[in-house]
Inverse folding.
């Protein structure tokens, strides 16, 4: 995406004119304005799989059994839980678009602000002309952050040479035939781990706490931090001789991702809230305790994507743009089924499970209980 912005702006050259006799293009301002629009149109498609998959994994493994003591007594479970969330095939690519709609221009005519919007709309008009002539693609399938090689936009050099004033042969020769979009990391899964403390019990209810300071589980994910809290109530404790243990649990997590992507060190920051409610059940036979669960999970994320130019392009055009920031906002929901098994070895629990939803998630860990 970054390269596509640059090449389109170079079509006008550093001294190209909107009108060859009158108005000069401010290519730095144009590059900033058009790149901001292009990233605004495509940042969510490129980066949203990172936010969703990372948080889907971190939101797993809240429980590994349904049993809660019926009597009120103090105990503490300390556990370490690891999660692996698989990337979906459709999360490896998305359709990138070039924004071509004119921006409204409410500024006083001929003011610097008015001219900045005017030159942006003039530039888009040239792109629309290339589209109408069949010389420019405005939609291409390309990689997300988890995909492989990026696709690209083909530069309509013949159309530019014949139809756009102010472009000399030297400028045109410096344009590549195809502009590659940002490549992904070619990644299959995202891994996370979290310490968890469970405190019980009061009227068949437990309190769960989990926290991770900013850490790098994966270089492609960047710094990931979160905290979570949940309340679990074993409602079968109110029944006489239930055939199994069952509980309802409500949980909330807040996470933050800070990541740098590619050679330009484009920066993503995302702050995400996750809400989950589940019902799960288990039955213990001697040392073995299988468990199953069913949950609804909701994710809401707000963030930003800040970018600038690659070093080779800055050297080529002789200047840099100011860092540009666009918002990234997304929501996602999932219904998930979980199956797993817990082994009891003295005061320790060793467990492994699998979550089945839009994403496939494997989890496992070890817990130790202290009773008072």
């Amino acid at each position: 995406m970054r390269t596509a912005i640059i090449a389109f702006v170079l079509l006008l050259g550093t001294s190209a004119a909107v009108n060859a006799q009158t108005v000069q293009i401010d290519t730095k301002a144009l590059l900033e304005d058009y790149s901001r629009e292009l990233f605004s149109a495509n940042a969510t498609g490129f980066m949203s799989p990172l936010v969703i998959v990372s948080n889907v994994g971190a939101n797993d493994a809240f429980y590994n059994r349904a049993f809660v003591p019926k009597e009120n007594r103090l105990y503490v479970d300390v556990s370490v839980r690891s999660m692996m969330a698989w990337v979906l095939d459709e999360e490896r690519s998305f359709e990138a678009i070039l924004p071509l709609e004119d921006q409204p221009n409410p500024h006083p005519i001929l003011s610097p602000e008015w001219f900045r919007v005017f030159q942006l709309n003039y530039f888009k008009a040239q792109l629309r002309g290339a589209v109408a002539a069949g010389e420019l693609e405005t939609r291409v399938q390309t990689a997300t952050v988890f995909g492989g090689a990026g696709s690209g936009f083909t530069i309509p050099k013949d159309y530019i040479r014949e139809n756009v004033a102010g472009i000399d042969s030297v400028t045109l020769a410096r344009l590549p035939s195809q502009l590659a979009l940002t490549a992904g990391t070619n990644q299959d899964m995202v891994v996370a781990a979290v310490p968890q403390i469970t405190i019980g019990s009061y009227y068949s209810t437990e309190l769960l706490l989990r926290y991770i300071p900013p850490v790098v589980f994966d270089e492609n994910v960047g710094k990931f931090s979160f905290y979570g809290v949940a309340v679990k109530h074993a409602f079968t404790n109110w029944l006489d001789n239930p055939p199994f243990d069952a509980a309802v649990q409500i949980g909330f997590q807040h996470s933050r991702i800070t990541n740098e992507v590619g050679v330009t060190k484009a920066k993503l920051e995302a702050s995400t809230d996750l809400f989950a409610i589940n019902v799960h059940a288990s039955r213990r036979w001697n040392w073995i305790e299988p468990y199953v669960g069913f949950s609804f999970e909701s994710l809401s994320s707000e963030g930003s994507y800040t970018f600038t130019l690659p070093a080779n392009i800055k050297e080529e055009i002789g200047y840099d743009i100011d860092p540009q920031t666009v918002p990234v906002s997304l929501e996602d929901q999932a219904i998930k089924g979980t199956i797993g098994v817990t082994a009891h070895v003295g005061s320790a629990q060793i467990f492994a499970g699998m979550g089945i939803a839009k994403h496939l998630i494997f989890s496992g860990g070890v817990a130790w209980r202290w009773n008072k």
Observations:
- DSSP finds six helices and 16 strands in the chain.
- Confidence is low (pLDDT under 50) at residues 1-23.
- The first strand starts at residue 17 and ends at 19.
- The helical segments are 2-10, 27-58, 112-132, 157-163, 169-173, 311-317.
